[in-house]
Amino acid sequence: MADTCYQPKGIVPTAEQLAIQLGRHKRVIVEANAGAAKTTTLALRLAQALERGADAERILALTYTDAAVLALKQALERIGLPAAVRNRIKIRTFDDFCRARLQHVEGGNVHHYDTPEQLKPYVLQAIERVMSNPDERHADEFAVDGSGEAMVEGLLQAFARLKGTLQWFLEAGEQVLTPDLANELGFDYLTLRTFWAYEILRRGGHPDHPAFRAPHDATYDLACLLLDDEAFVDLPQPLAMGLHLILVDEMHDTNRAMFTVLRHLLIQNPQTAFVGVGDRDQVIHAVAGADAGFMGDTFEREIGEAERLPLTASYRFGPKLAASVSRLSNKRYDSLSSMATDIQVVGYDDIKDAHRHIIEVIQQGVGLGPKATRSELAILLRQPHQSVALENHLLDKGVDYRTSGFDTYLMRPEVLFVRGLIACARNSFAGIERIETRMRVLQAMLTFAGSHVESAQDTAEDRAKEQHEAIKSVAHTPELVEVFLENQILRNAGKAARHQLEAAIDIASTNATHVLLERFVAALSPQTLAARVMVQRSDIAQVSANIQGLIASAATYDHVESFFRAMNEREIRQQGMRGKDCIVLSSIEAAKGLEFDHVILPGLNKGEFAIGGNTTDNRNLLYVGMTRARQRLTILCDRQRPSQYLVDAGLI
Questions:
Q1: How far apart are CA 355 and CA 585, in angstroms?
Q2: What does the pLDDT look like over 16-45, one tens digit per residue?
Q3: What are the beta bridge partners of residue 346?
Q4: Cβ atoms of residues 650 and 626 within 8 Å
Q5: What is the pTM of this model?
Q6: Which among 163, 175, 495, 644 counts the fewest CB atoms within 10 Å?
Q7: What is the dihedral of CA 258, 259, 261, 266, to 10 degrees?
């Protein structure tokens, strides 16, 4: 019987889209390019299933992000699917879906924490348990001073990767954790010990009903249950749902935990059809455990054969950019966009020239549509420390911006720490105007000193509360800071850290900028300092780069005092930016899934962009950055050392 083809409103599907919409293979994986309307195409395939008689309530669409859930719902609306039908379709993130399925097993809701701030007390409690364990055989592996405050963010990222890959569950099993095993798994011993202690806290001592979950924990927990042969012996299988169609958008973001859930969904719903859509060149390391293999060989090996269909034509940008990303990614790339996207590669001899060029294009509105605001211009950075000098330039030129994927450099703990040292050296703590900033400065000083506020309290929670109150009191009464520095920060710091802080304060007290530039970083030794309170190498490197960038920015000031005042003035200016007409200063990872009229990519230099060499992650990061642009892409590079990627993309 001939197919009745669903007729969408507002668009005429391409031949590639029609092939996907009308395909009848039980399993289909669509290899899509960036900007190729993959979500709209998935909506067409879903609508076609309904046209063939599928029950809307037996269709499940899974994505990685809430934004992608919304995008698919909007795509269904755009192509004309009635609201009464749309509302019956299950469109969920993997984690939301897993959370709902686990309720059938656990018999109730588990408390959910969404932010690192909510999880921080549990991470610190886990660190304390590990560090104070009297039975620990490898305590010499814990070369970390202080409470572990600076480790929290890096540890949460490591936990997310361990859970996304199921690496501990699959590779360590029941083995005894040792430093050698940790090394085999690619993690340091302290991280894995803390992970284990944190999971015990999260489980709350109850194997069937955790005390709380964080983002992606539900996917991890369900995946672990599915891999346990005895988990559902006496329970109904939560994934047996009688589904007619399963769709996965953003399939390139799939990790082992998500893939495990997907595989069992297909096992428990043997009659269901499957369509997955993704762009394997958008797999970047920020996604916990994402692996292109789950769209490729792993799918074939663990689930079965799939028909592979292309979606090559981009609607986002013009032929010139399509040709460049085609060369970079070594795959076919067409353009159906009406825009002739312009690409400019600008060489510079000095980073200041690059920043001046950025200011010029912002002020002139280059690459923006006639009705576009400055928020349609994005500067995408490879590493957060690259923002230090750039933010200063934007602030000094009166250009409003908002950051995405990282904090403004002025609020990074290591920068607040240096501001605190200079404030103490100059007796100028009151010169930091905002009370909230003073509190963050004092906390940063305690953190990087590996120090603490003395307390007679018994529990970590009560000690943390007492420390918070002490910090708050000093922040409101700046004349107390000298006593706080001597009696709490320095006295309770380790000997080496105390000497470093005292030396740095002594240098800053001279008020001579050239002395600060010549001696401060060497005396403080930020790499060594950070290594005492952090574990992740990338975190330690960023701390060092941010401090060095901050001190280098003092070169334009005659005195340390004027430099200190300028930092406070810049903070007040930056905190006052609340308008919508702000340019976007973002990490490449945070810009994934977004698009802008004009994208600027600075720092495309050898040894600066491709961290660790020509890896798939690095190439994919550039691919993602380039394909965010609609009307114009500007790439900035050092004339003497342009990135090889620019050659590969045919741009130089």
A1: 13
A2: 999 999 999 999 999 999 999 999 999 999
A3: 636
A4: no
A5: 0.88
A6: 495
A7: 140
